[in-house]
């Protein structure tokens, strides 16, 4: 989901004919709110499953890094981006936000951590 939305849908929507920055931002707010809700549900399930599975320490760290990146996005970056989005939707003209680069970097951390965690869990499975 992270790969499809963050690295495919988000940049492509701004290239579609007739999609203005305010329209793209409005769509993005809805899409990322839904994505983050689903990610929170999966993160909660992951935090419940980890102690039950008792994975090797290396396989434990990667999913926790992914959850930490999600929490960083929700607590730090999303409010920053929401503030900018509200200003743009209210008619303010602003330069591109560096917050998006931070958000994308954290998405990259999540993707790598989840992939690495999955691999480590598969390798360490009995």
Protein model, in words:
It contains 4 helices and no strands. It has 126 residues and is mostly helical.
Question: What brief labels describe this structure?
Answer:
126 residues, mainly alpha, 0% strand
Sequence-ordered SSE layout with sheet pairings:
Elements: H1 2-13, H2 21-53, H3 57-89, H4 99-124
Helix pairs in contact: 1-2, 1-4, 2-3, 3-4
Q: Kindly state the mean pLDDT as a whole number?
A: 89
Number of helical stretches of at least 4 residues:
4
**Strand/helix succession:** HHHH
Fraction of helical residues: over 70%
Q: How would the global form be characterised? A: elongated
Spatial gap, N to C terminus: 28 Å
What Rg is obtained from the alpha carbons, in whole angstroms? 17 Å
Largest sheet: none
Task: Tell me the total number of β-strands.
Answer: 0
The structure class reads mainly alpha
User: How much beta, percentage-wise?
Assistant: under 5%
- Unreliable stretches, pLDDT < 50, 5 or more residues? none
């Amino acid at each position: 989901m992270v790969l499809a939305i963050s690295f495919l849908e988000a940049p492509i929507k701004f290239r579609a004919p007739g999609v203005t920055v305010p329209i793209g931002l409005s769509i993005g707010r809805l899409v990322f709110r839904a994505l983050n809700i689903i990610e929170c549900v999966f993160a909660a399930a992951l935090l419940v499953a980890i102690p039950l599975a008792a994975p090797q320490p290396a396989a434990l760290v990667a999913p926790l890094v992914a959850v930490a990146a999600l929490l960083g996005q929700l607590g730090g970056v999303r409010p920053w981006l929401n503030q900018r989005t509200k200003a743009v939707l209210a008619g303010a003209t602003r330069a591109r936000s560096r917050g998006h680069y931070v958000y994308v970097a954290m998405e990259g951390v999540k993707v790598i951590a989840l992939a690495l965690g999955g691999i480590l869990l598969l390798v360490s499975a009995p």
